[in-house]
Amino acid sequence: MTEKIQKWSKDHQEELKQLLFDLCRIPAPSHKEQLRAEFCKNWLESKGATGVYIDDALNCVFPYCDNGGEVTIFEAHTDTVFPDMTPFDVKIEGDKASCPGIGDDTANLAEMMMAVAFLLENGLKPQNGGIIFVCNSCEEGLGNLKGTREIMKKYGDRTKEFYTFDGGLYSAVKRAVGSRRFRIEVKTVGGHSYGNFGNPNAIEQLAQLIVQLYRIKVPTPPDTKTTMNVGTIGGGTSVNTIAQQAEALFEFRSDDRECLENMQKQFDTIVEAERVKGHNITVEVVGERPCMGDVDPIKHKAILDKVVALMSKYTDKEIRLRSSSTDCNIPLSMSIPSTCIGGYHGGGAHTREEYVMLSSMETGLSIITECITMAL
């Protein structure tokens, strides 16, 4: 099967590139993936897929030979971090193709869709349970994994393994990085900067709070990593106005549940201390991603060993096992063996200069296609 897949991948590179470029031109901010979902549905149906549907979360779902028993789920997300609703242009310079979102996650999405075409073209069907292919929504940022949450509501109790295609070649996710994200708002009476000088300023109070947040002692148990970040701040009206309102987005992350709870306690303590001072502070949870659940270690090792062995066939490099925040967070929190691998070389993810090396996608397509056929 490996040789057949490699030949097919090589022979279909032009079709893969065209699919990639077509997808790149379709805007898909989180929560607004309708156009990409419709494109994916139409494309899959043109390859012979039946029963494809778009659900309420804007996932494009293709249940393949699902008879109601156990299923394996394969995903690649359709959304990008960019808010644009006008089409992007792909810039090609030799082997380098540049476009916002081209790597994360459009390259992997295109490769997964092409892998589905390979199955359909060759009449390959699963023998032990069904397969659910999902071009899923809302992986990025404040999308809060909405698409995968919806899929796991429907299929979670029947899912034996879960794979998502996201990121670059030659690494696999072994551990879920959980996170909690907050919008912090401070309000004051404000006033004129001269006439009401001395009135409390929302920006100054928010700044005090941010200083305290950066004094949080990040827990550092062995083999864990915990981080925090203020990502945006805003507020005020003009240079001669005492700000009545200011806000910031704050997150902390960890690949350890106890560390995540430790950060929550410290955060709550700091906010409450500022409130005791009389500050009007509102905290809104805008995102929450769970850490690992109690995944069977033998089954989890088996899925990781499988993808490491697969990728090792295509490189002499050591395959890196990493912690990351991906769509795997949801099934892993439900104790379902899961991992994430990618299918391209590139750079500049989450910037408007993002790029992929087109020659790397032949290997990526082979790996993703073979990964899927291993579930048959």
How does this structure look, described?
By secondary structure, the chain is α+β, with helices and mostly antiparallel strands. It folds into two domains: 2-176 and 291-373, Zn peptidases (Aminopeptidase), CATH 3.40.630; 178-289, Alpha-Beta Plaits, CATH 3.30.70.360. It is 35% helix and 26% strand. The protein has helices spanning 2-11, 13-24, 34-46, 102-122, 146-155, 202-213, 257-276, 297-312, 329-333, 360-373, and strands at residues 53-54, 60-64, 71-77, 91-93, 96-98, 130-136, 159-165, 171-176, 178-187, 191-192, 226-235, 241-242, 245-254, 280-289, 320-324, 338-341, 346-347, 355-357. A hairpin with a 5-residue loop joins strand 1 and strand 2.
How do the strands and helices of this protein lay out in sequence?
Blueprint: H1 2-11, H2 13-24, H3 34-46, E1 53-54, E2 60-64, E3 71-77, E4 91-93, E5 96-98, H4 102-122, E6 130-136, H5 146-155, E7 159-165, E8 171-176, E9 178-187, E10 191-192, H6 202-213, E11 226-235, E12 241-242, E13 245-254, H7 257-276, E14 280-289, H8 297-312, E15 320-324, H9 329-333, E16 338-341, E17 346-347, E18 355-357, H10 360-373
Parallel strand pairs: 3-6, 3-7, 7-16, 8-15
Antiparallel strand pairs: 1-2, 2-6, 4-5, 5-18, 9-13, 9-14, 10-12, 11-13, 17-18
Helix pairs in contact: 1-10, 2-4, 4-10
Ranges where pLDDT stays below 50 over 5 or more residues in a row are none
Taken as a percent bin, the fraction of beta residues is 25-35%
Distance between the termini: 12 Å
- The helix count comes to 10
Radius of gyration over all CA atoms, rounded: 23 Å
Q: What letter string, H or E per element, gives the SSE order? A: HHHEEEEEHEHEEEEHEEEHEHEHEEEH
Give the full name of the CATH homologous superfamily of the largest domain: Zn peptidases
| Total separate domains | 2
| Helix content estimate | 25-40%
CATH topology category name of the largest domain:
Aminopeptidase
Shape verdict: globular
Q: What is the strand arrangement across the widest sheet? A: 1-2-6-3-7-16
Structural class computed from helices and strand pairing: alpha+beta
CATH class of the largest domain: Alpha Beta
Work out the number of β strands: 18
- Main beta sheet, described? 6 strands, mixed
